[in-house]
Amino acid sequence: MSYTRQLISNGNPMEEIVGFSRAVRVGPYISVGGTAPVDAAGKTVGPGDVFAQTTRCFEIIRSALEQAGSGLHDIVRTRVILTDIDNWKQAIEARKGFCRDVRPVDTIMAINRFVNPEWLVEIEVDAVVADHV
Asked: What is the pLDDT of residues 29-77, one digit of tens each?
């Protein structure tokens, strides 16, 4: 079986410079890369607020999934990446607003920092379009 490869962009100029896509769909599989809490102008949303930043990440993810012909209902895995593991409860509270019904598997981890020190969280997701033929 042969699948086409669909690259999903959200217009971030770094996509072309660095050579990445917001998401990639191959057949029924969609991977959404590390999603930072930024607005359309690239400014950090919710500095100092993990809940607000996580919410913004999921808004961007939802848009990418919809561009790929999918939606939040197809998410099978989330990765919550934090700069301070003590903020996990705030991040998960925001995540629940987007994933409560579909209940994907989840990984929560901490790293030292992101490229932008204002970012407290990034989110990655994988999705499978269940009705894909």
From this structure: 999 999 999 998 889 999 999 999 999 999 999 999 999 999 999 999 9
- Does the residue 59 lie in any domain? yes
pTM: 0.93
Residue 133 domain-assigned? no
Containing structural domain, residue 32: 5-128
Distances (CA, A) of 77 to 16, 53, 59, 83, 106: 26, 19, 16, 20, 6
| Number of Cβ atoms within 10 Å of the Cβ of 114 | 17
Residue 28 resides in a domain: yes
Closest by Cα among 94, 78, 97, 98 to 35:
78
Q: How many domains does the chain contain in total?
A: 1
Q: How far apart are CA 91 and CA 23, in angstroms?
A: 21
Beta strands in 2-120 (DSSP E): 5-8, 23-26, 29-35, 75-82, 105-110
Angle at 104 between CA 65 and CA 28, to 5 degrees: 45
**How far is it, in rounded angstroms, from Cα 26 to Cα 11?**
20
- Give the CATH number, domain containing residue 67: 3.30.1330.40
